[in-house]
Here is the input.
Amino acid sequence: MTRSSTPPSAPAPVADLTLIDWDASPEELLAVDATARRQLDEHAQILPIADVPTSVRHVGARLRRFGGMTVLTLLVVIAGAAAAAWMPRLIGGAVDLVQSGATSGDLWRQGGLIMLAGVLQAILAALGWALVSSLGQRVLAGMREDVIDRALDLPAQTMEITGIGDALSRVADDVDVTARAVNNVVPNIIQMGFYVLVTLIGMATLSPWLLILVVVVVPMYVGAGVWYLRRTAPIYRRERVAMGARAQGLLSAIHGIPTVHAYGIERRETRHVAVLSETAVVLGMRVMTLVTKLVKVMVWPENIAIALVLVLGYVMVNVSGAPVGLVTAAALYLISLLWPMMNLIFSLDDVQSAAASLTRMVGVIESIDPAASPGEQVPSDGSIRLEGVSHAYGTDEEGRERTVLHPIDLTIADGETVSLVGASGAGKSTLAAIIAGTLEPRHGRVRHGGADLARADLEAIRRHSSIVSQDVHVFRGTLAEDLRLARPDATDQELRAALRLVDAETWALALPQGLETEVGEKGERLTAEQSQQLALARIVLQDPAVLVLDEATADEGSSGARTLERAAFEVARGRTTIIVAHRLSQAMVADRILVMEGGRVVEQGPHQELVDRGGVYARLWEAWSG
Here is the structure.
């Protein structure tokens, strides 16, 4: 589509693009834009999200794979916390030595122990941080690979229906958030957590009187943390969903730039993305509001703890006769505990965000099975048999299946060429995808060469059949590398022969470095026609027995279409071929034509027979031939 020569009238200004109503709920923001609301609703449902227990079990299982390193990390972190907790006792001992009139040698010895504790704490803290980060990165690296692996294993129809935004958000944003937490937050949380635990144990063993402080103050901190976590966890989950929807909105707008420019709907598309972005921001501000309330609450346990240690210190010295050094150690324990407790609770904010991302990652890993062969059956030839095959996409508002393909029984002989003809929405592409094995039918059975696809060897089926559609991707790399995706061991002579068969050798060798020219992203830009020829050349190298052409030449001009049609027919020669025909010139050369309407095959037969019959195909041919 080209831009109109007459610029469209400017749309009305959109007031909600620059000002965010911080008091509005996410639902109120989304209400101003139905498309944004629909995108958020879709992303709230498409890919699964694991619950917290499942995520904890998953991470625990991965940690067990690094058992030795996990144990070493725990020992180093605990030792660092113990060294830090040792320091107040040593300082308290120094106070007692001074009060008792100890010799300078005793004081120097005590000072040496204090320095030793400080050095040990610093060394063990640094080593513990490095070990926690290293262990976390190893676990995260495996999770990242599994998330991408599962995303690539998603059925093509799932990605078409749901969009790529959520999957992209999980392999990019969620991994990034979790990685930052592993590097910066998790080591701090673990070290602070053990330090708080060891310090509390140290206080309790220092004097029974200090148990009063532990019993009174610790529940207040725990209560504040629980109050905060219960309210922020759902917000973070919704925020991650909103970010996935925003990614989909951005991708949709960018991929549709020519159409956006042609109709002058830049402002509308910007509004869609802005509303989704504002929704995510407002959810983030909800968390900040809770943080402010938490800060107000945290003042109370701090002040109560300081007051209690003063009172308990006076009672311990003047009533129970405790040494001043012991009270000094207790005060140091308390002072050293206040900041870690506060830091621990506020670090949970980042942990909540990372946990929300982690549950989304685990949801993909745990809920989507990796691609695996469902059985061992192998096709014996290129024949195809469909038995009661039907398909539906989702359900309507009344809960009924949206049937796009009604039950079909079909037999295609080895080497036969069949064209699928019909209006848009007739079910041609769905049937073609089912035949190719890229779409699993809701009901029925598909056999390739006698092998049931539901029980066949996956690699054998992938070698046996292939599909070429309108949307062809050129991978980044050299032209030769792109071709060898179909057959890694192909020689340069075989590559040139494949290009020659699809009439692409001339332009391919004319590239700056010939077959070694970089193509794809940031490389030599190929035209749509050249990209299709490249895809057809891959088919020549792969040499499948079954070939499905899903309107592979539909978007080209007349000259380009004729070139691609000739190339497609050359590639299809000797193979069982199913052609989703956009042009009836493709259909007429097929051995058999299937005419589809409303998900059903209403006519079938050779071209001339269908024309003579005077039915649906005859009317289509009359309109096509003019």
About this structure: Residues 1-22, 554-558 have pLDDT under 50 and may be disordered.
